[in-house]
Amino acid sequence: DSTDMKFKVALLKATEFVVEVNVVEGSLTLTALASLYPEKLYILGDAVGGWSLDTNAQEMTLVEEGVFTWSGSLVEGEMKFFVDKDFSAPAYGAVANGTSIAASGEYAIELLGGEDKKFVATESQVEMTIDLKEMKMVVEVDTIASTVDMVVVEGGSTVYDINDITFFCVYSI
């Protein structure tokens, strides 16, 4: 038979495979030698204190293959994500350089090549989930309050409101 039968393989990421071809049965088996996704992911940048791999890299928690989470405080500054504590390691960043993550939402990420595209954070408490399967980052932002509201009410009580948490201070004169 002169029919040319071709196999097509669709991959999310490049990896190495063992290829087994059974010409009698007409089958092909691909076995990945390694995971398609990294086992670790680190946040690095001014937003987490600086660009020192030794002192500033924040390791994210692996939830499942290709999905990482992190909760913590960010300051105003840039950041991106590395798969190892090594500047030559693959890194993930924003699709457009300078993408602000000042608000809660979903942001596209990409594996960075020659371009250095970073996210820009504001001072905030965040919960971040990086999903490398979907190439997205989900961010829940809780902006850190910079002011305290104080109200003196009848009877000498003082009410303080910090981040929508109300504190009462009762005293008598």
What features would you describe in this structure?
With 173 residues, the chain is an all-beta fold. The chain has strands at residues 17-22, 27-32, 42-44, 58-59, 61-64, 67-74, 77-82, 91-94, 99-100, 105-111, 119-121, 124-131, 136-143, 149-152, 158-162, 165-169. Strands 3, 4, 5, 6, 7, 8, 9, 10, 11, 12 and 13 form an eleven-stranded mixed β-sheet that branches. The model has no long low-confidence stretch (mean pLDDT 82).
Can I get a quick summary?
The protein has 173 residues and is an all-beta fold. It has strands at 17-22, 27-32, 42-44, 58-59, 61-64, 67-74, 77-82, 91-94, 99-100, 105-111, 119-121, 124-131, 136-143, 149-152, 158-162, 165-169. Helix content is 0%, strand content 47%.
Instruction: Give the SSE order as H and E letters.
Output: EEEEEEEEEEEEEEEE
Shape: elongated
Tell me the radius of gyration. Answer: 24 Å
The residue ranges in which pLDDT falls below 50 over 5 or more consecutive positions are none
Gap between N and C termini: 103 Å
Q: Structural class of the secondary elements? A: mainly beta
Determine the mean pLDDT. Answer: 82
Helix content: under 10%
Major beta sheet, specifics? 11 strands, mixed
